[in-house]
Amino acid sequence: MDKERLIDRIEGFLQEAELKPIRIMEVCGTHTQAISKSGIRYLLPNQVKLLSGPGCPVCVTNEAYIDMAIDLISQENVILATFGDMLKVTGSTSCLAEKKTNNVYTVYSPEDAVDLALKHQDKTVIFLAVGFETTAPIIAATIKNVFENGPTNLLFLTSLKRMEPVIRLILNEDKKRIDGLILPGHVAAVLGAEAFRFVTDEFKIPSVVCGFEAKDMAEGIHLLLDQITGRTPLSFANLYDRCVSPGGNKLAQQYINEVFEVKDGIWRGIGKVHNSALMINQKYKRLDATHKFTLSEKMYPESSHCQCSEIILGMKSPFECHLFGEGCTTEHPLGPCMISSEGACAIHYRYGRVHNCLAK
Ligand code: SF4
């Protein structure tokens, strides 16, 4: 069944259901993008609110991590290699782009950082490694390879996060806030669908692993709404079995377990989340930039203007921020959710304009 017919069916059975708002969270930034790009967000009845979760890696990167990166560029003979999205993310006072130095390079993968280190053997190259369990395996594989084969002038400053603890935190905080969850498809491809069964088993809300095509998303939302409105019994489902197996990618998991250890992590807008960070373990410590340069992450109070923290916790939609589209746009972003291409505010702003709908 195509996307439009699925939406029609949703409208049909919601008319029969009790008129209370239904709140569904999509955890992953790529899902936020797919839902907005396809127009699904704007086609659904007003009663259904789709909330974006904490699945944009740049948006949850702590201010202190950016401060550490800024500290590093002032060190002699250091080059920073970073994904482009990170350049405009602010630390406690400024961002890497504002520093206008010539020792910050944009890269597209960890392999690019290896190439950079081989090209600049008289310098120390530091790769800013951010992401979730999706990017962690390739970063782990690169660290292992560099550890065994060099180059010896490449270090890693990591801010890698785990999804499960933050999902638990969101669901524990207010059990009535979220009625259903679209689970992170990419992370599930690495960890396996079964890694997320706890959402339905423990928190008693429907949850679904689904793909990123418009039809995948519409099917996932339909399945959740069927359960939320009591038409079908509560269940956990994997609609993305063409990419996500029950147990996930064992080789990717091996790399993660080989190179990283689980520690408490600091999330921008959320604070410390127990067991939510993947940090370089003792064996690979000599490649950890924080080890060599004695850096440590701190926590900062949130800016009173930007409401990214409420947005990534599913308490508000970007449209509810009074700065959205006014003081804060993709051209002049005020917070990380507007900076990153996977940030909820940037996605709502970009596709809201495309679909001529800047409020829902
Ligand atoms: Fe922050 Fe801008 Fe989003 Fe408001 S619209 S929450 S200021 S990023």
Automatic annotation (TrEMBL):
GO molecular function: 4 iron, 4 sulfur cluster binding; carbon monoxide binding; iron ion binding
Lineage top rank: taxon: Bacteria
Classification via InterPro entries: Hyd_form_HypD, HypD_1, HypD_2_sf
Pfam family, one: HypD
Record's keyword annotation contains Metal-binding: yes
Gene3D superfamilies per the UniProt record, alphabetical: 6.10.20.100, HypD, alpha/beta domain 1 (3.40.50.11750)
Gene Ontology BP term (one): protein maturation
Keyword Iron: yes
Keywords: Iron, Metal-binding
Annotated family: Belongs to the HypD family.
Protein's recorded name: Hydrogenase formation protein HypD
Species annotation: Clostridium aminobutyricum
Organism phylogeny: Bacteria, Bacillati, Bacillota, Clostridia, Eubacteriales
Gene that this polypeptide is encoded by: hypD
